[in-house]
């Protein structure tokens, strides 16, 4: 059975689609499933933000076929690991958890790089274009560590 990992941000159009594409590119597809979702529904059904698609393409990743969806409580059952992009996403997701087992699945993604520091992946939506490249680099570093751990634990 595949190990399932969910990336979560607010809109599911900027950060978590990149996190999904980056992590998926580092894992064998026959053993791991990577998905993403947002805690807000404004963009449900939409493609990732054009700036996220462009920065992914620059790094040889195609995220254009992804479509935004809302995080749902069933995701706690479906997924083994849930990575959130910032502290606000963490609060929103934890609020929906039914028990400690579900809460323990949720981690702030940059804690993989900076343990226990709860550093946010900044929301690039209203920022400058360069913010997307910065977000890509942060997520690429974090996903490298996550992929190594996952392959070691579930390979
Ligand atoms: P994301 O960025 O959470 O990285 O997808 C956002 C995209 C859209 C909005 C907020 C954050 N919005 O408010 O529409």
Automatic annotation (TrEMBL):
The active site is at 9 (nucleophile), 15, 123 (proton donor). Residues 3-149 form the Phosphotyrosine protein phosphatase I domain. It is found in: Cytoplasm. It comes from Flavobacterium sufflavum. Belongs to the low molecular weight phosphotyrosine protein phosphatase family. Keywords: Cytoplasm, Hydrolase, Protein phosphatase. This is protein-tyrosine-phosphatase. InterPro entries: LMW_PTPase, Ptyr_pPase, Ptyr_pPase_sf, Tyr_Pase_low_mol_wt_mml, Tyr_phospatase_low_mol_wt. GO terms for molecular function: acid phosphatase activity; non-membrane spanning protein tyrosine phosphatase activity. The keyword Hydrolase applies. PANTHER family: LOW MOLECULAR WEIGHT PHOSPHOTYROSINE PROTEIN PHOSPHATASE, LOW MOLECULAR WEIGHT PROTEIN TYROSINE PHOSPHATASE. Pfam families: LMWPc. The keyword Glycosyltransferase does not apply. GO terms for cellular component: cytoplasm. Its EC number is 3.1.3.48. Its main location: cytoplasm.
